[in-house]
Hints:
- The structure is a single chain.
- This protein is an alpha+beta fold.
- The chain has a single domain, classed as outer membrane lipoprotein receptor (LolB), chain A (Clam).
- The chain has 3 helices and 11 strands; from the N terminus they run αβββββββββββαα.
- The chain has helices at residues 2-18, 194-202, 207-230, and strands spanning 25-34, 43-53, 56-63, 85-89, 94-100, 106-111, 119-127, 130-139, 142-149, 167-173, 178-187.
- Residues 1-19, 67-75 and 233-238 have low confidence and may be disordered.
Amino acid sequence: MKYIFFLIFSAISFSIHAQDSNNPFIVRYYGSFNSLFERSVNIRKVTATLLIEGDRSLFTMKETGDEVVDPSNIAINLSPDSLFTVYKDTESNSLVFDFMDLNQRPLYYADTLYPMEWKVQNLEKSIHGILCKQATTFFKGRNYTAWFAPTLLISNGPWKLGGLPGLILEAYDDEMQWKLTFDSMEQSNPMNFTRYHRMISSGIKGYDAFTDYLKKMHTKLQHAFSAQATGDCLTCDTKSVVKLYSWEKIN
């Protein structure tokens, strides 16, 4: 009985401390991501962390298994889906995400913080003993479901998701191409967000610039592959095989 009481007290105590801006903490998630969404199936296990300190947070996601490449699929994925690093600052109403270009160099762009319109549903479930409510939204071409904890008064969540009256403990799209579920929380050392502060202060290109960059890269690759396809061939099909795939739908 004492042990059970200790566990309950510890959970409540951590919940209180986690919401104190003077106590940075880490939320850990586990899940999966289909890197070949809309083309084929290549489900990769992933882990993710959401580092929160007051109004600021940094989300990162990485795969834990090897990617299986289909040699028959020669389409090039120009966008690693903006899923991997997202910085949020509610005080300045800012969001910054990264993108790795074809030379594996990180590029940074700004996006709107929490533009999604959530519909809270009359469904509840427990995740690691924490009562959660369901909410749904349509965001940049995909339907998402989130399970948030009203007892954790942190309007944040994995990736770009957030804006609900509670921390998002689970999130996924309707087709289950991407899913993250809460694993654990722990207190953390103070974090250094200086690089992101400088980007925001000095000005950073927005989401439209990001989509323009992808489209330009796509056009260049199309031309390059078409030129290679023609060569000395007089009868071969010269249509480009390069296709643009992006997790967030680009018109």
